[in-house]
Amino acid sequence: GSSLEPEECSMEPPAVPEEEETSLTVASGPAGCQLFGYVGIEAVLDQMKIKTMKTGFEFNIMVVGQSGLGKSTMVNTLFKSKVSRKASQPGQEERIPKTVQLQSVTHVIVEKGVKMKLTVTDTPGFGDQINNENCWDPIIKYINEQYERYLREEILITRKRKIPDTRVHGCVYFVPPTGHWLRPLDLEFMRRLSKIVNVVPVIAKADTLTLEERAEFKQRIQEDLKTHAISVYPQEDFDQDPDDRALNDRIREKIPFAVVGADQEHQVNGKRVLGRKTKWGIIEVENPAHCEFPLLRDLLIRSHLQDLKDITHNVHYESYRVRRLHESNRP
């Protein structure tokens, strides 16, 4: 009744009802409730961590670019192991492949008890022909086939508890270090592929450019992407949190990353480092002063790996799923 109202309770000092009223307001507000003791809610994070370490997770990456740009070496450098299949020496009659044949290699990588099923898809023969018309069709077909495979498993009446995920979460596109503008092939590929997969452009073998040439080339690529309305990862449209937007803005200023790959270690100042040995010194791959490989590694693995998977599932796969279900419902 009215005797429970704080302002009419004369036997209590005014401070206590104010605290009661404040606690009720906080409990009903968006900020949450103030706990008076330890409940153990934070243990949920430990439960999620233990479950993830037991089951592991999947990550699928695709590398696209002309032959000789160091795609296999870059993947080996990213994961510090021989995870990419080296191209075998082709015979004389097989030196120029007729089509782009995609090759996928799957490995299970374990680091500090965390298992990751890594699938690397290479695209040998892309852009190597005199006539490169529609050379991106096999790549688009492969990406859509993985979406279709996931969709078929998802619409089953009796589904698996965990659907095998073979969808491509990220596509690293290697731009030749010409120092000029993007080629029509590069623009057309990124324009088509950015609509169905997360595309991360990089300047391959950046040690062939001077620092001034690298900065000018990077600025020209950014202008080309903006002029042709090509949205590469991380996309501005998907930034929701202000902190994420600030971080992604700093990343977008650096894209495309000027990278150097190396899978051999050398001795520098008493330490073993990954690098490329030249007559005038050693180019350290993990040194930010030499190249931007650490930025690419942080983007793909350390900071945005889960975001790559989330955008693939919630945006690219969802758009494919809607389109396929509309097609199946047509009379």
Automatic annotation (TrEMBL):
* Name the UniProt record assigns to this protein: SEP12 protein
The Septin-type G domain covers 55-327
Asked if Coiled coil is a keyword of the record, the answer is no
Pfam families, from UniProt?
Septin
Q: From the Swiss-Prot or TrEMBL record, state where the protein is found.
A: Cytoplasm, Cytoskeleton
Q: Where is this region: Disordered?
A: 1-21
Q: PROSITE patterns from the entry?
A: G_SEPTIN
Keywords annotated in UniProt: Cell cycle, Cell division, Cytoplasm, Cytoskeleton, GTP-binding, Nucleotide-binding
Name the source's superkingdom. Eukaryota
InterPro entries (UniProt xref): G_SEPTIN_dom, P-loop_NTPase, Septin
Q: Biological process (GO) annotations?
A: cell division
For this chain, the family text in UniProt reads: Belongs to the TRAFAC class TrmE-Era-EngA-EngB-Septin-like GTPase superfamily. Septin GTPase family.
Q: Which GO terms describe its molecular function?
A: GTP binding
Q: Cell division among the record's keywords?
A: yes
Q: Where is the composition biased (Acidic residues)?
A: 1-10
Listed under GO cellular component are: cytoskeleton
Please report the organism this UniProt entry assigns to the protein: Zapornia atra (Henderson crake)
> What gene does the UniProt entry assign to this protein?
Sept12
